Each structure stands twice: as C-alpha cells, then as structure tokens.
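Morning run. Coffee first, then this:
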Amino acid sequence: MTVNEAARWLSERNDFLILTHTRPDGDTLGSAGALCSALRRAGKRAFLYPNPEVTEKFVPFVKPFFAEKGYTPVHVLSVDTASPNLFPVGFEGKVELAVDHHPSNSGFAENTVLDAGRAACGEIILELLEALPGGVTKAEADLLYIAVSTDTGCFQYANVNESTFLAAARLSKAGADTAGLSRLFFRTFSRAHLALEGAVYSGLRTFHNGEIVAAVVTLDMMRTLGVTENDTDDIASLAGKLEGHQVSVTIRENDNGTSRVSLRSGSRVNVSEIAKKFGGGGHVMASGCTVKADPEAALQLLLPTIEAALDASAGVEV
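And here it is:
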C-alpha cells in the first residue's frame, strides 16, 4: 500500500487504536502520537494503546493520546513494528494497517506501508500526515522530530540520508522545537544514567582481534547503581563508540530469564541476518533479538555467529 492509498484508507474509516512496539522508543511513540493527533483533527476517534513500558521522558508527549478504559476500536494500526512478537505488553489481536521502515517486517498486517529506505518511521508518517487534510501542526511536528531525531542518533547514524534531512527541514518549518527537543533527548540525563554509562564503558570486552565489542548490563548492576528503565535510553549505542570495532553487542538481562540483545555494525556485516538466526530482526546496521539465556550465556551463543559473519565479510563492503 502506498502512502496516498493509506491516507484514503484512513479517511474512509473511524475508531482507531494505534499500537507502539514493546520497549517503545522515540520513533514508534512520536510516529504514533502524531498520527493519532492528525486523525483526531480530521474528526476521527483515535487512541494509542496505553503501552505500559513507556519511559518517563516520553510520557508527557503520548499520555494524552492513551485509550480510555473500555474503549473498543474498530480498526487497529501499528507503527514502527516489524512483527507480532513486538506488540506491546497486554495486546492481543490483528492489525489492519502497519506503517513501518524495517526491512525485516514479516507482513503480519492486512495492509502494509513499508519503506525500508527511510531512516525512521517518522519520515513515512510525515508524508502520511501531509496527504491527510490539514497538514502538520506544531505539536505533530514536535512528535515527528522526536521520532526522526531519536532513531538516527540526532542525525549521526549511517541510516541518515537526504530524505532524513528533508524531513527534518519540513518539521522545522512546521514549528518543531528542534533546539529544546535535542537538549531534552540528547543532552539531559539522570545521575543513574550517567553512572550506568560509566559502568558500561569500564566493562567493555573485545573479541575476534578487536572487531567485536560487547557490553553486558545485568539486573544486579542496575540495582547497585539505582538504575530504572527510565535511565536506560540509548544504552545500546555506547559500545559502538570504541574505535576499531566492526560489530558491537549490548546484552541486557531481563527479569524472566532472558536477555535482550542489541546489535550494531559498520559497513561490513548485516546484523539483521545475525538477529534473524535468534528470532529477531531489524536493519542492516542496527538489529536486535531476545535470547533465552542469562547475559553471559547469551554472549557465548552469539559470538560464533558474529565471528563467522565477520570472517565471511573480510575485505567486503556491504
């Protein structure tokens, strides 16, 4: 489905529930909030599924859109969600329209707007809002700037391209508070977050002649440092700052005996293919999965696959 077809589809319907993915980031939340706002301006009843994992920084931006208790939607949408195993905690059901930018999207929805060439789902939602009546308001521009900037590391990641900067320019013109939002999301951190960063940096380990760098975050570490989920934004990017590596791995212990794995790479290795082997997916240079093991065991399971990918790609640019 194209963006224009999706705009017509939405215009012909009412009573929407919009899903964000589990452990929601700025892209899924900003995209969902902006779409919900635009649908409401068009006279539609629209709400966000009240994702229980939204962290404190994002709550003020999305809580006003949360569904009221007892709300029964007619149509369910999802944004920035690649597969049903990423549906938010507590949701069960089918999705009629998915808007996404992950090349690993499983095609779970009845209709899908997919553009894997976009750095953020927020770019696609911006085009969708521009195709709906009324354009983009300042509040929606703020939400979409959160989406685009957070999913690109404030325009530093390798996924950034011409369309990313064009989207940011259109959002700025629409009134997005680019300076204030950049300060909030990229230059303001809790003491616990900074303590966790220090622990991650001091505990980095390298493998495969320095081509692999790994960071492990355990529940004990978080308890000792007084870290909550609200303090963990962008932790997955820290290991990738070590010079000389090709693949970075960040493993976070969950409280159910599993470990959440975030994989990042340069130009040689497609980490989406690695993540798929463990039931996950994502982008070529940024992917993730969940492993049924404690963090140390998960690392040992991952290393042979990453090493094999590095050996296979030696001297090859992808």
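Residues 191-313 form a domain with the Diaminopimelate Epimerase; Chain A, domain 1 fold (CATH 3.10.310.30). Good start to the day.
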